[in-house]
Amino acid sequence: MDYNYLAELLFPHIKETTEEIEAKYPPRQLPEGAKVTRFAPSPTGFVHFGGLFPSTVGERLAHQSGGVFFLRIEDTDAKREVEGAAEGLIKTLAKYGVHFDEGAILDENGNISDHGAYGPYKQSLRGHIYQVYAKKLVCEGKAYPCFTTEEELSELQATNKKEEIKNTDWLAEAEAKRAEMLARRNFTIEEVEEHLKNGHPFVLRILANGDPDKKVKFTDLVKGNIEIPENDEDFVLLKSDGIPTYHFAHAVDDHLMGTTHVIRGEEWLPSLAKHIQLFSYLGFKLPKYMHIAQIMRIDENGNKKKLSKRDMGANMDDYTSMGYCPEAVCEYVMTLLNSNYEEWHSQNADKPYTSFPFNIKKMSTSGCLFDFAKLNDVSKNVISKMSAEKVYELSSEWAKDFDKELYCELVANPEYTKSIFAIGRGGKKPRKDIAVWTDVKGYVDFFYDKFFTIKDEYPENFSKQDIKLTLEEFVKTFDINDDMNTWFEKIRDIADMLGFASDMKLYKQNPDAYKGSVSDISMFIRIAITGKMNAPDMYTSMQILGYDRVINRINAMISTL
Ligand code: GLU
């Protein structure tokens, strides 16, 4: 068959050659070892927690090596595209430290536009380029048209499916498929001319030359050495509307855009043989691949399951309303991504995660486990190291959108609020009360009269009389100007006076000799003032609350006893 003639019939409008295209995409001038990576999402919805993995890895590897990280929008499936998804995606990723140097990024007006010399970065704008390469493959006898209409195809697939269920004989099935493929390959130029004259659409298929009995050896930078059967499937390169499939667009785009490392989900691993074949057909150098394991979770029955779209924690946009600060989420992602991150972090507590030397070899080859408890631990650590000023800023920013009532209290007197957040902060062992901004209200509420409620129950093993006497004695002796030692001495005096041990050591030696200890006396006071059993340092809290509030609350409690 005259392939050049066939190519001309199929793509008469394509005049440009691949050489002309290649000239527009010269090799990048980057330092030795610089990695060029990309994130290539389809704009079909929100950013999934799992999407943060390849994008963070891409960002780290590129920026750590002095390379380039770019964003390509894979919008070839118009049916699945969601309006505004691409814009939302860029904003969400930026929030989690994923910044692009190049690609389809947002301009000052919030519209997506191209930045960089290797575009267009939206696949829907690259139709012409794919066709140039498609034409070349036809000229070389490596691709051919297939005039089966979409209806025919879906009919075929439906019957195949039905047969699949009935047919357990996979050999017969494979043979049937093979026969179908060979029939497709068997056509004449005259038939093509006839179809085109009648306006029939066609898909372009690769002419696969692989032998599935032979294995391709391959090294994935995450999964290690693998062997996969060669591809013998004439998969589709261009759909009937001229739009490329993922496989074809991946090869053409990543070649032209100079991607050195393709970082993507492991769901693409089964397609790798197709990609290897395609890169070789096109004469492109194969990039390095990193297939990232899926994120798993433990379900109600204790089984490992994929973190699916609908699971709590899947949608990155939910993290904002749940009150997570992005820094904490980034730290958590790093702990999941690199097994030595936590160790590094404990030795470099003051450094941001971006200083960590990200190491591909330390990535998990199987699925990472998503776990809110661990995320909260990481988050508590991150927030405990922030300044009171920062906690104030971030928590009030969150409350402004998600808890108006709290917001009004927090910002009514910023210095007051900051002094609350300063309790137990700044030392070697900072308090870790806040994991998410939704924890703030429960932690600070007693400092605000609006939220404070009297707790009208005490542990039952103490007499009401003793509690009342404690509080009355406290009111008599309390002086807001006392230093911490004097203040505590007074509490010990109350303990002695009421038959409670003022010395914990003595108490532990002979607990039966006392009604309780000074810590119980403190607890009575704490409950009256904070309404809780657990609260931050009492002395400092009282200093912040001020004399009147402390005395009023104690008196209010006395009147309930
Ligand atoms: N658009 C593909 C996806 O969203 C991209 C995979 C890749 O990174 O190559 O899965």
Helicity level, as a percent range? Answer: 40-55%
Beta-strand residue fraction: 5-15%
* Count of helix runs: 24
Question: Could you say what the CATH architecture of the domain at 464-560 is?
Answer: Orthogonal Bundle
* Unreliable stretches covering 5 or more consecutive residues: none
Using the CA coordinates, give the radius of gyration: 33 Å
Question: What structural class results from the helix and strand content?
Answer: alpha/beta
Q: CATH fold name of the domain at 464-560, please? A: Arc Repressor Mutant, subunit A
Distance between the termini: 102 Å
Strand order of the biggest β-sheet: 1-2-3-4
Shape: elongated
Q: What is the CATH class designation of the domain at 464-560?
A: Mainly Alpha
- Biggest sheet: strands, sense, closure? 4 strands, mixed
Name the hetero compounds present.
glutamic acid
Q: What do the pLDDT scores average to?
A: 93
- DSSP strand count: 14
Please give a structural write-up.
The chain is 46% helix and 11% strand. With 561 residues, it is an alpha/beta fold. It is built from 24 helices and 14 strands. Strand 3 (102-106) and strand 4 (112-115) form a beta hairpin. The model has no long low-confidence stretch (mean pLDDT 93). The site of glutamic acid has 9 residues, from strand 10.
Summarize the structure.
The chain has about 550 residues and is of the alpha/beta class.
What's the helix and strand layout?
Elements (H helix, E strand, L loop, with lengths): L2 H8 L7 H7 L11 E4 L12 H13 L3 E4 L13 H11 L6 E5 L5 E4 L11 H13 L3 E4 L3 H17 L3 H16 L3 H9 L5 E4 L8 E6 L3 E6 L6 E3 L7 H11 L4 E5 L6 H11 L5 E5 L2 E4 L5 E3 L11 H5 L3 H12 L3 H7 L20 E2 L2 H13 L3 H15 L1 H9 L1 H8 L18 H5 L19 H14 L6 H15 L5 H6 L8 H13 L7 H8 L1 H14 L1
Parallel strand pairs: 1-2, 2-3, 10-11, 12-14
Antiparallel strand pairs: 3-4, 5-6, 6-9, 7-8, 12-13
Helix pairs in contact: 1-5, 9-10, 12-14, 15-16, 15-17, 19-20, 19-22, 19-24
Bound molecules: glutamic acid.
Glutamic acid binds next to strand 10.
